[in-house]
Amino acid sequence: MNTPPSTIAIVGLGYVGLPLLLAYARAGHRVIGFDIDPAKTAQLSAGRSYIKHISSDQVAVALAGGKLEATTDFSRIADADAVILCVPTPLDRHFEPDLSYVRDTLDAVVPHLQSGTTLSLESTTYPGTTEEEVVPRVTARGLLPGESVFVVYSPEREDPGNPIFSATNIPKVVGGLTPACLQAGVALYQAAFDTVVPVSSCKVAELSKLLENIYRSVNIGLVNELKIVADAMDIDIWEVIRAAATKPFGFTAFYPGPGLGGHCIPIDPFYLTWKAREFGVTTRFIELAGQVNRAMPEYVVHRTMMALNTLGKALKGSRILLLGLAYKADVDDMRESPTFELLDRFAALGADVAYYDPHVPEIGPTREHAKWQGVRSVPWSEALIRQQDAVVIATHHHAYDLNQLAAWANLIIDTRNAMAGLQGAATVVKA
Fold first, then answer.
1. Known catalytic residue: 264?
2. Mind listing the pLDDT tens digit for each residue in 252-285?
3. What is Dmax (Cα atoms) for the chain?
4. In CATH, which superfamily holds the domain spanning 220-430?
5. From 86, 181, 202, 264, the catalytic residue
């Protein structure tokens, strides 16, 4: 297969799948989007986006050009020349991989695959998943990888809200089960991506994505631990990082925060940890970094408690406002956000806790924090902020008026160095 497919199916229309769908439509290909959520397919069919940083205009243009369809009917997989799976791979409560979304999706897709189709898995997972989960299902249908179906793995690298790197200008790593599979995978992704990086196997591609996120997790864990040490020594860790970052080689700046969030860094490293145990290997750096990063919300709560004590107040009964529910600045993505941990911990200690986030006006359904579903963001107002005993900056959205915050708040717990250089009546404590 040397030519790109004409009709491409994207399964899973979230923060990864929807940008990919629109990228192929812009490249002139017919795309069919599949999702089990009828609300998503209905909105796309009406020309509307449900993700803040993706405009409805992009959807409307693809729809008007006859390039885009969206459906919950998986029998339409039969119309596709290539199928790309973009479904979640979360952890269970024991920090072990939950491949139920991948398995259920494969079980829905594979019965409708036609001979000659390219099947690509993009969900982040442990090395060997493509061979262990995808291959047995396609062969059970009588399709032979490399001959009648082309099986590839290509890890997603989407960074929601990134103004510089979007779906198509991030180099695309592709591994194939056989040389013919790799050839088909390269043709599939060259149809929309500026750069395609072929590798020798699906396992190499699978591990490459884990390495990317483990690298970030370990370095964030390091700087989070250094933040605690620096705080104890009365040293500003942000100034330390700025100084170190002036070195033009051998150093990459990472920044501390209230914990890890998003669909990748808090989760993906543990896929390798779990798989490594099968080979009798202990991934000590990965596990230690995970422990440090998961402990950061508790550290923020402790710093808040001590700051309130200094002002003669107890945490129990105090009014605490958390700024930012999204896991990163300027997006509406709340997956794995450490703010949920802060909400849980402050509430458990008896605080009257609320949140403000202009990008997340209401908390939707989550796997582990269902009790917060339906809670709405409070309004931004002087009266409300002055009523708070402490305001905790968990996410540094640029929509905040920090000068107003500095003037109105009594106590600010700043986990993002957002208040650096600003003057006001508020007491600012870094955490």
1. yes
2. 999 999 998 877 888 888 999 999 999 999 999 9
3. 73
4. NAD(P)-binding Rossmann-like Domain (3.40.50.720)
5. 264
